[in-house]
Design goal:
The chain is built from 15 helices and no strands. It is globular. It folds into 2 domains: about 1-205, Growth Hormone, Chain: A; about 210-414, Up-down Bundle (Growth Hormone, Chain: A), CATH 1.20.1250.20. With about 425 residues, the protein is an all-alpha fold. α4 (about 75-100) packs antiparallel against α5, α4 (about 75-100) runs antiparallel to α8 (about 170-190) and α10 (about 220-245) packs antiparallel against α13 (about 320-345). About 50% of the residues are buried. About 75% of the residues lie in helices and about 0% in strands. It has helices spanning about 10-25, 30-40, 45-70, 75-100, 100-115, 120-130, 135-160, 170-190, 210-215, 220-245, 260-285, 290-315, 320-345, 350-380, 385-405.
Length: about 425
């Protein structure tokens, strides 16, 4: 019996994930700005914890949702996750009206728990596609991510009533409305995909046995370190950018004073750059340039971008900020998928899934730490996050060059 889904099921999954991530993209640029307005936090640690809380919840709850979906089915988990997004994005809007940092924490923690169902969506695709068509199906999730991060800030731009002043609760409400549309799609158009031969969607938060086995294989440890450096640096940059360009903190002598709408357009520019580089440049270079070459090139470009960010702060130049964003995002888009591909090629096929899962765990930890320390670093000195990111990427570049020279595809001898 074929387990291929009814025609259109994958499209419904794509739309549901896209619309939900659209909601995430709406609030991402504005979270640290709202929070900074609601409470005094001279050292930035509370704001750092706020930004990290979303990723922490995703890290913890993704395997829990996966285990629940193995038992009760994918569809109920996806519906509950979307319902949670509706509730907590609504709470985000309420928190902005009440100017409550505590409610903002509850909203971000809840949204992180609700948004941890993305691996369940991937399991839905694995249930519903043949091995031959699975890469195309999984690409839908990646496409939904890219489009959500690109168009979410544009929707936030439209949700902000004016270019100046407090944008009010409408970015949160707009995210909730979009999540409600995704919820209705899932309720009325999404059939259950789990069947007797479905693979488990649950995985451990951290598998020490796999980690030990991975380190035994040549260059795998170096590549995992490269993944950590890449994601940590980018998370630090992404977390601090909106506060840097929004300005408004006279004590810190902020050099930029973007409106809320300009902040949203800046993040839309970042999302569009990421989509263009991954969809255009990386796809064209794949097969012509080795993954090692792409990852090393990406590390060099990303390091240059962080250096240019430092100069942009010194010069108080909006043009240099946008130029640095293109370099940072372009380098990340070259480096991150290439590292995952290298991990796959150099892993024992019998351990490939476990090692790629370990890579995802390393990415999640890096995102948590990068998001957590970025704002405290910014509070110390405006250039500090970008000094740290640049320094980390120099270390990462050394690791990647060593990995390229030391390792080779699994099973090859030359």
């Amino acid at each position: 019996m074929s387990h291929e889904p009814r025609r259109g099921s994958l499209l419904v999954i794509f739309l549901a994930v896209f619309i939900d991530l659209l909601g995430f993209g709406i609030v991402l640029p504005l979270v640290p700005i709202y929070a900074a307005d609601f409470a005094e936090d001279p050292h930035g640690w509370r704001l750092g914890l706020l930004m990290a809380s979303f990723s922490i919840m995703q890290f913890v709850f993704a395997p829990i949702w996966g285990r629940i979906s193995d038992h009760w089915g994918r569809r109920p988990v996806l519906i509950v996750g979307l319902l949670g997004s509706v509730l907590f994005y609504t709470l985000f809007g309420v928190a902005t009206v009440m100017k409550s940092l505590a409610l903002l924490f509850v909203a971000r923690i809840g949204a992180g728990i609700a948004g941890a169902t993305i691996p369940t969506a991937q399991a839905y695709i694995a249930d519903s596609t043949s091995l031959e068509n699975r890469p195309k199906g999984m690409a839908l999730i990646g496409m939904a991510f890219g489009l959500g991060f690109t168009f979410g800030p544009l929707v936030a731009y439209l949700a902000v009533p004016s270019g100046h002043g407090d944008p009010g609760p409408w970015p949160g409400y707009a995210a909730a409305i979009l999540s409600a549309l995704a919820l209705l799609l899932a309720i009325f158009k999404l059939p259950e995909s789990k069947h007797a031969h479905s693979e488990s969607a649950a995985r451990r938060i951290w598998d020490w046995r796999t980690f030990h086995a991975a380190l035994v294989q040549p260059s795998i440890g170096l590549l995992l370190a490269g993944v950590f450096v890449c994601v940590f640096s980018f998370a630090t940059y992404e977390t601090t950018l909106s506060m840097l360009v929004k300005g408004g903190d006279a004590a810190a002598q902020m050099p930029f004073h973007f409106s809320f709408r300009q902040v949203c357009l800046t993040y839309a520019y970042i999302g569009l750059t990421l989509a263009l580089v991954q969809g255009g440049v990386v796809r064209r270079l794949a097969g012509r340039v080795s993954e090692a070459g792409l990852s090393v090139s990406g590390a060099v470009i990303e390091t240059m971008g962080y250096g240019l960010m430092v100069v942009a702060v010194w010069q108080q130049s909006i043009g240099l900020v946008l130029g640095a964003a293109a370099l940072v995002v372009g380098g990340f888009a070259l480096m991150h998928p290439s590292l995952n591909s290298l991990l796959s090629r150099r892993s024992d096929p019998q351990q490939q899934g476990a090692i790629l899962g370990l890579g995802q765990s390393v990415s999640a930890l890096a995102r948590i730490l990068g998001s957590g320390v970025g704002i405290p670093l910014l509070r110390q000195r405006l250039e500090m996050p970008y000094y740290v990111s640049a320094g980390m990427m120099v270390v990462g570049l050394v690791l990647l060059v060593a990995a390229a020279r030391r390792g080779r595809d699994y099973g090859t001898t030359a």
